[in-house]
Amino acid sequence: MTFSASINRRRMATATATPSGRDTALGAYGLRLSGDAPRSTLLAPVAEDAPEIVITRRIGAGGVPNTVDDDSATVPLLDGGSLELDRATRSARLTTRRPITDDELAHPYLAPIAAVHSHWLGRAAFHAGAIAVAGRTWGVIGERQAGKSTLLAAVASEGGVVLADDLLVMAGGDVFCGPRTLDLREEAARWFGGTRSLGMAGARERWRLDLGPAPAAAPLAGWIVPGWSEEISIRRRPGAAAAHHIAPARSVTGISIDPEAFLAAASHPVVEFDRPRDLAQIAIGVRELLEELVS
């Protein structure tokens, strides 16, 4: 089966699997959102029995330390805002210096909320992207400037399913769907097209690429580690290689990954994907990568 054929088959299945005539809980990362939650089209359907997180918003200054314990957490945000999270009430109070849109709350501000509450729920949360290929998830993980978002954009441009932008949350071997958007920097946005400028959102300037539907969750198959080289290269490594890459990928400073969840994540193979920095070559390389993951 070709990659494009498998994508089309999954799209048909998705289109017929959604029930009609009933209310659907909305959220992301396997969490249902309520309270002052974003009324954003970037959110996706989640299970009705998914854990509920109550969100409130306020305008003000942050100035909180980075603290996480078994009951509560405070998280300073790069733009001067802050998060105050409570485990018992499953709540999150978001403080920002200016009003933010619902789409901004859905992404990027929801990510740290989901990361901390996922930790309390016994789930594993990694600073990583994710794609769904032939019904399975491949995490995209790597150091800063490794080109993770550019790789994800190339996957989307080839008709692939991007499951998450920069937060991967998994439980019981399944990876949950994130908000339906991918944020790029200017050069990549101009190359791939179809983006819209957000100006400053979070702590940086962003160009947003809206994503199509994706499964609510899909089992983890392995990890893609992007790198730079003069030629396209795709190499499979055994599961033991994953530990080296995912160990430093804690989603929020101060949170340690549950040992059992870490071992489950690290047991999957790694695909090292090196490519030139030229965006045209990245697109060519991603086609080869997707065919490799389907086989």
Could you characterize what this model shows?
With 295 residues, this protein is an alpha+beta fold. 27% of the residues lie in helices and 34% in strands. The strands form three sheets. Strands 9, 10, 11, 12, 13, 14, 18, 19 and 20 form a nine-stranded mixed beta sheet that branches. The protein has an eight-stranded mixed beta sheet with strand order 3-1-2-4-8-7-6-5, covered by helices on one side. The chain has a three-stranded antiparallel beta sheet with strand order 15-17-16. Helix 3 (148-157) packs across helix 7. The longest helix has 19 residues, at 102-120. 43% of the residues are buried. Mean pLDDT is 85; it is low at 1-22.
Keywords:
295 residues; 2 domains; nine-stranded mixed beta sheet; eight-stranded mixed beta sheet; 7 helices; 20 strands; disordered N terminus
